[in-house]
Each structure stands twice: as structure tokens, then as C-alpha cells.
Amino acid sequence: MIGMIVALALILALVIGPLVWGIRADRRHARADLLAAVVRAAVNRRLHGESLLSVEVHPRTLLRPGRVVLSTPHGYEWLAEEAWPVVAALVPRSWELVVRPAHALEPEDLARAA
């Protein structure tokens, strides 16, 4: 009797555990997608349209907080400088806001690429 209950509990845990995990992951991704849409809309309003500013949103996990990353190509860093105050107001306090600097390609990198 006890063995049957333990076996049933183990089978239920093996079936229900991944389902619950997947539902929680889907909800985290949905929240991140919603935040990405809000941030992109605010950036587009601030910069008066689409720009070369890239917005990446990574949902939080068990080991790290959520992250919003702003990045631009070399020479367009002013876009991130102008947009980050608006983005900082929208990002939740428990999330990270990262402004990734652009790096210019070195001449030897360009020669290797050719």
C-alpha cells in the first residue's frame, strides 16, 4: 500500500514537475517580451522613430535577475545616451540595465575580413 502511494507520487512528480517548470518559464518569457515591447516603443518615441539602437531583453532565471541590454554600432553611441534615461524609468528595480559600448574594428581585423 505504501509502496504504491510512493510510486504514484513519484510518477506524478515526474509528469507534473516538467509541466509546471515549463509554464513558469513561459510566463517569464511572456513578461520579458511585454517589457521588450514597452521599452522599444518608449525608445522609438524618444528617438522619433526607428533607429540603430538594439534592445535585448533576457528574462530572469533562478540564478540571475532579468536583463535589458541596449547596444549600438560604432559611431552611434549617442543613441544609447539619449534613450537610456527613458529605459531606466521602465525597467523594474530588480532587473539589470546594461548599456553595451560599441567597439571600432581594428585595421588588422578589417584586413582579415577581406
Secondary structure layout:
Blueprint: H1 2-46, E1 54-58, E2 67-71, H2 77-90, E3 96-100, H3 107-113
Parallel strand pairs: 2-3
Antiparallel strand pairs: 1-2
Helix pairs in contact: 1-2
Structure description:
The chain is elongated, with a radius of gyration of 22 Å. A hairpin with an 8-residue loop joins strand 1 (54-58) and strand 2. The protein is built from three helices and three strands. The relative contact order is 0.12. It is α+β, with helices and mostly antiparallel strands. Helix 1 crosses helix 2. 58% of the residues lie in helices and 13% in strands. The protein has one domain: GMP Synthetase, Chain A, domain 3. It has helices at residues 2-46, 77-90, 107-113; strands at 54-58, 67-71, 96-100. A three-stranded mixed beta sheet has the order 1-2-3.
The backbone outline, from C-alpha atoms, is elongated
Q: Remind me, CATH topology?
A: GMP Synthetase, Chain A, domain 3
Task: Determine the N-to-C terminus distance.
Answer: 73 Å
User: Secondary-structure element sequence?
Assistant: HEEHEH
Reading off the top of the CATH hierarchy, the class is best stated as: Alpha Beta
Number of helices: 3
| Poorly predicted tracts of residues | none
Number of strands: 3
Placed side by side, the strands forming the largest sheet appear as: 1-2-3
Q: Give the fraction of residues assigned to helices.
A: 55-70%
- Averaging pLDDT over every residue, what do you get? 90
Q: How much of the sequence is in beta strands?
A: 5-15%
Number of domains: 1
Question: Structural class, please?
Answer: alpha+beta
Radius of gyration from CA coordinates: 22 Å
Largest sheet: 3 strands, mixed
CATH architecture: 2-Layer Sandwich
